Amino acid sequence: MQFSGFLSKVALFSAPQTVAAWAPVPIRLIVGFGFLAHGYAKLSRGPETFGAVLDTLGVPLPQLLAWLTTLVELVGGAAVLAGAFIPLVSVPMAIVLLSALFTVHAQYGFFSVKFTEVTADGIKFGPVGYEIVLLYLGGLATLAIGGPGRLSLDAVLRRQLS
């Protein structure tokens, strides 16, 4: 009885359902843009350059995986931005993230921002940990489970098919 009273008071601070339906939009914008930016960076430098990085990490089929990673980031990022087919595109996107986590970021610990030194020339940063990878994975999982929200291609398609 007391717990339900507490919950009703907490609900007063929650967003109304009509507003909450828009909550996925900022997540989609951040995750989608982040993937597009990384994919575009690989494409503009040439996926062969990323393939060389994968080769030094000992990843098998580095050139093929460089192209596939670039495509996953570009297509997946665009789909997330549009709010389309997120449960489908999130699987290869999560594979890319988990691959990056275990091949590069895990050895550097959790934190993404590490001050190595502060000099008169400015701050020097150390290698990036897996914090941001986990945030991207959390964003993808949230969108895949909770849906892309009202302002999405999926919502438009759903309304047209109804």
UniProtKB/TrEMBL annotation:
GO terms for cellular component: plasma membrane. It is found in: Cell membrane. It is a multi-pass membrane protein. Keywords: Cell membrane, Membrane, Transmembrane, Transmembrane helix. The keyword Cell membrane applies. InterPro entries: DoxX (IPR032808), DoxX-like_oxidoreductase (IPR051907). The chain crosses the membrane at residues 93-113, 133-153. The keyword tRNA-binding does not apply. PANTHER family: INNER MEMBRANE PROTEIN YPHA-RELATED, OXIDOREDUCTASE CATD-RELATED. Belongs to the DoxX family. This is DoxX family protein. It comes from Mesorhizobium neociceri.
